[in-house]
Design goal:
Blueprint (H helix, E strand, L loop, with lengths): L4 H32 L15 H28 L1 E5 L5 E5 L6 E6 L8 E6 L7 H11 L3 H20 L4
Antiparallel strand pairs: 1-2, 2-3, 3-4
Amino acid sequence: MVDNPEQQWFDLRQAAMDRLKGENEALMKRLKELEESGARVSHDHGEELVPRASWELANREKAELEDSAEFREAVASILGVKLYFSPNGQVRVTSLYDLRAAFVFQPTSKSEGAKMQLVEQGEGGPQDLPNLMQYWIAKEQCIPGFLASVTLECYDKSKREQDGLE
């Protein structure tokens, strides 16, 4: 699940995007410093260093990314899981207490509304994971109940390991 060609391609693409955004952010910061110091570049048409629309768009995107990061951190703190939303609608959920306990859910057909189905799972999680999946997902069709059970089991195991009981 983690080391497949699609994920590798996505990781490379994401690394390139992150690098470019970092470079762009550094350039924008430098241009802002120059602008605040009163430096101007003379152009034939008197243009500013950076078009105002580009500057505002970059600042808006930065604020949105910061808000998104804060949201993800809040969800992780409150629910004990990290969420990753893929452009194709899939959601990867990873336990904070066992990073190998990862699950990928995807929306079912649009006619069924906002229901999700489990499509992949990692190698971690509770020992009785098959029973939890059978009960919460197959029988009850309750993904929140499943994730809560997994979180509790992973937390208990993590706590026992920290206390040296395992």
